[in-house]
Design goal:
Strands 1-2-3 form a three-stranded antiparallel β-sheet. The protein has helices at 5-16, 21-40, 46-53, 57-64; strands at 77-86, 89-96, 102-108. By secondary structure, it is an alpha+beta fold.
Length: 112
């Protein structure tokens, strides 16, 4: 089976560790189901939260005021948001402070 993004990386790592394809498929399916559950329930991933905490608070505030709502054009998140790992860094998911529409902002994290 072909995987993309983090699932491809996960499959490659599992292959390197010697796992067979049926086991890899089962583990990746579990991860996909877990990710879908987290998305549906607005739950923050622990590793993403750790990365977020390393960002200075003033920069966090600027990030939360620099998104774009396709419904109304507002640029600010409400207080309720969650953090997820993304292949570029972390992804901030939340709601528009003006209309309540869902908005997302990706924060690129360099590995230097």
């Amino acid at each position: 089976m072909k995987y993309t993004g983090k699932y491809k990386k996960m499959a490659d790592n599992l292959r390197e560790e010697g796992y067979d394809e049926p086991t890899i498929k089962e583990l990746i399916q579990y991860e996909i189901e877990r990710d879908n559950y987290l998305k549906m329930h607005d739950i923050t991933e622990l590793e993403a939260a750790r990365v977020w905490q390393q960002i200075p608070e003033d920069v966090q505030r600027r990030i939360l005021k620099n998104a774009y709502c396709v419904k109304c054009g507002s640029t600010t998140f409400t207080e309720k948001y969650n953090l997820r790992n993304n292949f570029l860094g972390i992804q901030v998911n939340g709601y528009c402070s003006k209309c309540g529409g869902r908005i997302t902002r990706v924060v690129e994290i360099s590995e230097s």
